[in-house]
Amino acid sequence: MAANLSLPATPFAFPFEVKHTALVIIDMQRDFVEPGGFGETLGNDVGLLRPIIPACQRVLAAWRAHGGLVVHTREAHKADLSDCPPAKRTRGNPSLRIGDVGPMGRILVSGEPGNQIIPELTPLASEIVIDKPGKGMFYGTALHEILKGRAISHLIFMGVTTEVCVQTSMREANDRGYDGLLLTDCTESYFPAFKAATIAMVHAQGAIVGWTAASEELLAVLG
Ligand code: C5J
Q1: Verdict on whether the full-model pTM lies above 0.80
Q2: What is the ipTM metric for this complex?
Q3: How far apart are the two ends of the chain, measured CA to CA in Å?
Q4: What is the number of the ligand 1 atom nearest to the C-alpha of 75?
Q5: Considering only CA atoms, which residue is closest to atom 6 of ligand 1?
Q6: What are the structural domains of the chain?
């Protein structure tokens, strides 16, 4: 692929073409970012994730203005939970389990209010929305075929949480041959140390998983 843009990144520049790159927004759904959802049932302070929203909005607006492909994912299970392994549902001691009824409807179930993308990042009708039963965006989804069909080779990641669904998706993408970059101020964790460790391990060893960069670098390159 002949790249026509080059993003200053760590550990080295990330060359890409908008037409062969998708902006992937991982799980910016109410379940993780608003009180009463899955994140809070696990004992987390969901307020920690909200500060990235303005940076995510800026990138999304710029990417849309350039006509780039946008993929939104949601961690979501079918209403009958047939795609939720018992090990996932029964693990730990959350205040509500996947499928239980909470203040935003059934926890982590497709179509429920809590499962919707937050209003600040509402997908356009033309954008791809992937419901995924796992942490990674390729497991149990048709996303690889969709991206190949659109000649996408590069992925720019935002979303939550950094060390769980974002990192799992980046690793899955890496193994499928995509070049992936994580926007460091557009991703967040309930555990700041885990975010920092994930960023370090993504770009270590010559981008063994992928690249990292601040969103202002991408905005500058997009102009
Ligand atoms: C989690 C996610 N943390 N989207 N999901 O369970 O990272």
Answers
A1: yes
A2: 0.95
A3: 22
A4: 4
A5: 164
A6: 18-222 (3.40.50.850)
